[in-house]
Design a protein that fits this description.
single chain, mainly alpha
Amino acid sequence: MDALYFGMSAAFGIIAWATIFSTFIWPKLKTRPQIERLKLLTAPHFFRYLGTTFLIVGLVVHKLPAAFANPAAFGDLITAILAYTTFTVLRKNGKPGTYTALAWIFNVFGTIDLLIGATVGPLLIKNIGNFGVTYLIPTFYVPLLFVTHYYSFKTLTERPS
């Protein structure tokens, strides 16, 4: 039953963030230049270092399976570094070819990292309660990350005006 509640929480998180973005953020953001949109959509990923908390017993009730916790933690660290690198190039108003290539790498890697965690986690974590306080990461923060990746891909695949 806990897995059902966990899944519902994650699903409601995605629905909530998608609603907030589609209603309030995207209508204002889509009128901005591509580089500005990508900066805003990259910034929430600065906090992906939070994935390392999956490795800290005390924040998680019991040690989470290494096959989930290690890739989740280190994938998030790599994605955070990619986010900062991409943002830095965007902030310096780099050439479109450079910043779009970096934005693609960051978004593809970051999305794959989230998808791996979302598929491997339920297979390996038998007791959802073991997440402890880190329960908020997959139910609140990860949905935001999925939504920002979606809007980044939407931005990257748009036709030039």
